[in-house]
Amino acid sequence: MNAAAPNATDPNQRKLEELARLGWYHSMELPDGSVIPGFQSLANLRNRLAQFPVPADLHGKRALDIGAWDGWFTFELERRGAHVMAVDSTPFERFRVARDLLQSRADYRIADVCRLSPAGVGYFDLVMFLGVLYHLKHPMLALEKVCELATDMVCVESFVIDDGSDPAAKPLMEFYETTELCGQFDNWVGPNTACLLAMCRAAGFARVRLESVLDHRAHVTCFRRWPENENPREPAPFLTSVENAATRDREFSTLNDDYVAIWFKSPRAGLTTGDVFPRIGPYGSHPVYLQSTGGDGWQVNCKLPPGLPSGWHSATLRTTDSSWGSPVRIGVDISPELRRQRPAATSASDLRIAIVTDGKTWERNLVHTGLDSCISLWVSGLPADAARDGLAVWLDGDDLPAVFLSEPDPEGLRQVNAMLPSGAQPADRAVSVGFGGAVSAPVAVRLV
Amino acid sequence: MAVERAAGDPTFYELVQRQVALLSTKGWYHSIELPDGNIVQGMIGIDALKGRLAAYPIPADLTGKRVLDVGAWTGWCSFEMERRGAQVMAVDCVEFEEFREAHRMIGSKVDYRILDVEELTPESVGLFDYVLFFGVLYHLRNPLLGLEKICAITRDTAFVESFVTDDGSSAASTLEFYETNELGGQIDNWFGPTAQCAAALCRSAGFARVNLEYVSERRAGITCHRLWEPPLADAADPAPLLYSAVNNRSNDVQFHPGKDEYVCVYFRSEAPGLTRDRLCIEIDGSGAPALVLVNLRGQEWQANLRVPPGLAPGQHQVRLRTRDSGYSNAFAIVVENAAARRDRPLRKAPPPAMPTEPSPVIYEVRNGMRESAVFEGHRNEYICCRFRTPEPALDRESVILSIDDAEQPVLFLTDLGGGSWQANARVPTDLADGEHFVTIRTLRSGPSLPGRLFFKPGCE
What we know:
The complex is a heterodimer of chains A (about 450) and B (about 450).
Chain A: H1 11-20, E1 28-29, E2 35-36, H2 42-50, E3 62-66, H3 72-79, E4 83-88, H4 93-101, E5 107-110, H5 118-121, E6 124-130, H6 139-149, E7 150-159, E8 172-175, E9 189-191, H7 193-202, E10 207-214, E11 217-223, E12 238-244, E13 251-252, E14 259-265, E15 276-280, E16 283-284, E17 287-294, E18 297-303, E19 311-319, E20 328-332, H8 336-340, E21 352-358, E22 366-367, E23 374-380, E24 391-395, E25 398-400, E26 402-405, E27 414-419, E28 427-435, E29 438-439, E30 443-447
Parallel strand pairs in A: 3-4, 3-6, 4-5, 6-7, 13-20, 22-30
Antiparallel strand pairs in A: 1-2, 7-11, 8-9, 10-11, 12-14, 14-18, 15-16, 15-19, 17-18, 19-20, 21-23, 23-27, 24-25, 24-28, 26-27, 28-29, 28-30
Chain B: H1 10-26, E1 32-33, E2 39-40, H2 46-54, E3 66-70, H3 76-83, E4 87-92, H4 97-106, E5 111-114, H5 122-125, E6 128-134, H6 143-153, E7 154-163, E8 174-177, E9 191-193, H7 195-204, E10 209-216, E11 219-225, E12 241-247, E13 254-255, E14 262-268, E15 279-283, E16 286-288, E17 290-297, E18 300-306, E19 314-322, E20 331-335, H8 338-342, E21 361-367, E22 374-375, E23 382-388, E24 399-403, E25 406-408, E26 410-417, E27 420-426, E28 434-442, E29 451-455
Parallel strand pairs in B: 3-4, 3-6, 4-5, 6-7, 13-20, 22-29
Antiparallel strand pairs in B: 1-2, 7-11, 8-9, 10-11, 12-14, 14-18, 15-16, 15-19, 17-18, 19-20, 21-23, 23-27, 24-25, 24-28, 26-27, 28-29
């Protein structure tokens, strides 16, 4: 006997029983304190959310809940003050019922993840991407789309095939052709924890952190920004050049898998990829490649972070204990209209070659001939917006392809690299540079 | 079974490094035979190139065929296909000067394009009888998306060659993920599948039949057919009867281009002990394998399949057979034009005060999943209602189907000819047990006399 058993004729109780018949996945707490019981208890749902550092106060924030199902996470983020959009691949009547019961103002949309774009739904401070990834055929594409929509933080929860406890585990993903996973045919991939983390990083997030693995569910927080350095103790790095790693110019396309190559100088010795923090626009992008270019010079490559709107953006970087380095402007999806808006190239005045060296050995006024022979010039008098493609390098009468143009160094000199023809013979020659109709005085160089 | 990892294997790493060193001294990747009999020596010899191609059932005579070579590199395969008589397009993600040079020296007419795999669509490059997809799959961040793009532009057969992580003996269907340069020290590798996984990816991409030709030195060759084998001349099984083919999310016949959508087909087959691999489903003649096959009861079956990639907006015919039967009747599905979908009116007009057309006459009511008018309250059940009307050119918006006076959206309407029509609609799952009445009217007619259906939840 249960004295507290509610009266079967109690209208509230009848209403709850009716609602329960809808077959809820999420339990739902109603404003009067009563609870519609679902497959997932409130405690379970709260615990899932508690795995992530989601702020208790989300006022003024825009949040996206992908794969909202009955909507518990949507309504919880709304309760914390966020403007929430909920997205699912099929419409759930229960979501609409719950939204009415809770008088929620969440914007409910039916869409596939891979078809979401900033142009269609805008940008979000916070994206919840819970329990969706392993249902997708193209998990990397989905993570890139999610990254594109997020301006700050994404919470990813996914089924994983391991418990995440082996730090040496190599990234591996199972592929489910039909019903191999739990007899359901809507599962496509099962990554191990290492693979999930690696895919999140490769999607373009600056930082990725494993929060926990509970019962084959990994919780990963993905951050789009680097933390600011409050007390920089090292001088800021100096960026000598930024280029598209493939096309070698300063323009990028979000349609390609474009990588940003940054050349910089840093007084910090023995840098590793963990010490370098590239930033394009507001977004961090972790290094995928770092090499010393000699002395205090370095080259770092990182992915162009997803979600940058068409236009001009600043590329910069800092090291572990420094402030941000000198920014360099790059173009993303530059239309002919935008390109025309660039300030007109001013003509060069006092174009002058200050230093001539071998591009590899840095020996002065001589260049070693042979395969991949390269000459480096330090030039003054180039206009600030000079680009490599407007630059000419002549070795006597030979027009050499310029392959690199740096930003001005503190003395205002810009480095120009040019490749020598492979059949160049040892001789005494003269080198000059030209830009926009101006030509420098020739400087002697010995080919050896 | 544990899979030996390819990434981190020192022997494999050394092999790749040797190849990279060799390439930098040779310059050319493929060797190329010139018309005068001379050979430009590349990293891969003529014999090795011929051997690789011979592992696939590529016809010796390709006259009149259109062939695409994806990831052409120096172009040996392109030029070989052209030599066999094909009209060839070669595609690569970066331009190779060697290709241009070989093209010139051979006097080739191969159409050379610089495109990413994601950019290959029926609109951008057209359709091809045969597609070569050699050495590209593992360089893609979305390998299944790449294979779908290939499937969408293949009319007959695609030949896939890929790095794989095992020797073909592993039953595991897994992919290694390479975040940076874990595989052979190269940064342009993203996923390494097992041979079984590579074959599964090909099947999932939409090919009807997939045949693993060889696995050797961590490379696999896979032939992917879009067509089923022709039906047997003396088919032993009776042809199945196809009840319907609907979108598994909406039970509608509408499909949305570019979405990951699935077709549920409901059919009757007298073939004893039917299995998934004996079922041949076709959409417009291209084979589409069943992902699941469920026996609903006796000879009633349900199969789910993916919508094959690349279906153009408009109507497409679904039909099926077993390996030992003739074809069933066809059932039409519709790939929507996204723009037309937005313009569809949402509300129906009220019944006309003064009908200008005679009322339709219902002559058959049945459950779309079987041959009776009994409904059990399953989520997937829907009603097929056949009726006669003299009105021409009806569409879904002009036909109103009601169950017990409650309007149900018409999901599907088809002209059966001779003034007969079929309308499909969902059946509410909360009907009371027993008999219910269906009526049909058009925007210009009064309602028909009622047809009957029976609701018996859980009667099985």
